[in-house]
Amino acid sequence: MFWRKASVLLPVLLIAAVLVPGTSGCRRDTDDGSDSTIVFTPDTLDYGVWDTDTLVTDLSWLDTHQANLRDVFFEYDSNELTQAATEALMQDAAYLMSNPGFKVLIEGHCDERGTIDYNLALGERRAIMVRDFLVNYGVDSSRLQYVSYGKERPFVTGSDEASWAQNRRAHFRALPE
Amino acid sequence: MVRPAALLALSAAAFAGDFLPMTPIGSDCLPVSVTMEGDRDYTRPALEQLEADIDFSGLLITSRDADAGISARIEENGSRLRITADVTAGGEVILTREYTASSNDLYTMIHALADDAVFALTGEDGIASCRIAFVLRTSDGYALACRGFDPRGYSALLRDTSVITTPAWSPDGSTIAFTSFRSDNGDLYAYDVAEARARRLLSRQGLNTTPCWTPDGASIAISASAEGNAEIFLYSTGSGSVSRLTARSSIETSPAVSPTGQQVAFTSDRAGSPQIYVMDITGSGAARLNYAHGYCDSPAWSPRGDQIAYAARAGGAIHIFVCRADGSEVRQVTFEGSLNEDPAWGPTGRHLAFSSNMDGRRAVYVVELNSLAVKRLTDSGECYCPTWSPARASQAAD
User: What is the rounded distance in angstroms from the CA atom of residue B166 to the CA atom of residue B175?
Assistant: First the structure.
């Protein structure tokens, strides 16, 4: 099983070695141009092992940033920042200032009770409010993008105030630069 | 399921507040007797569909006793079906037609026969051959789907995990414009019906949404926010150029071009809440449509030019309303459910499609405006944003 995995990985690793020079964990045992074999033993499992699924740049560090950015919630039919929203945004702004190296997509969302067309534009107002706050705080505006989903992509399905409150938000997504 | 809106109106009018219910448009329907003979496997579904198409036309109505008639015969020939039909008025045959197709296309033939009978007897187009495209949302994602007025179910034209919304079928039926968020931006796309493919038209930053075709099919009115906030633009399909119609700090969205191509109704919150306004196609002279509601959106201009449908908040719910193009004579069309929106006129101005949660999950419904009969069109997933194909071109008599 190991050897079959290694032989599948071999051409992939050789390509990776060409495309991603200097990346740790990918080494050729020989330089004589022959098909080299990379030997995997249980001892070296914890580095130098590549899963075929992750032959893309590892972006899990973005998930950490995203988890640390608090979403901002809005009152019904409003794009004003409440006290709680402002506090969350100040934390987010501080986090962004101390953690450079990635971009942020601000998604504006609405609950289901308005109409589709108007809500697409209303969600944009919410995203812009949040973007403007962060820029005023000092976050570099080139790091910030926004999009509105209106009520098209709710977080919670349900027709009660608890669900609606969950959907009226500006949501942050961390993106690579 | 058919439920008369007028009956609903009688029971709900007490709670509806200030609005009169929609009244039937046009004249009484012409009674038509319908008979279908021939191959036993097919006569029953064929007759049922023909009667349904006639009764939903808003112009004819099936009746035992009638001066006008459709007498048809259906025969199977291998895997093909043939329908021969005479349309009579006052005892005289005014149209004889023959239709042949594979047995899979039984309903297509019946719709064609119904439309031909409507045209022969009234001089107006029928809508039985129309299809309605709509957005279908399931746990798998979003689809642009379409179906006709028969038991065949829907076909998914496009599927995506990203949001698809606000589709609009072109006047010539060749293209469906819609907005897709697959690039994390509200991009305007055109789905080519014949090629079964979509291509991107506009990807300017922000929203490029709520498309509405001009009657000549040369331009698409949209709401776009690339220049700061949502404004109405005209996108030329030939040159790809975009010209701006509105310039305000408020939200301008949801344009509806009049059938003359000279005016545009749209939604604006310049007065503090979303309301319907009407301006010239050049962007000048915007005037508010009416002062009947606290919240309006989604105007749709009747192909007859004389009426505008829209969604408005009433009594804690959102309902479909119709008024004259000058904003007067506001009438309420829906009374059930809490969310009725996206009104779309049928190509002859005798029908309105809309989405409603009156049965729980959002579904697409169609109301025929003479009898005010409401039919539910979709029954799987969450369906909304209906848009009509054009009527089948009436053919010259053989």
Answer: 14
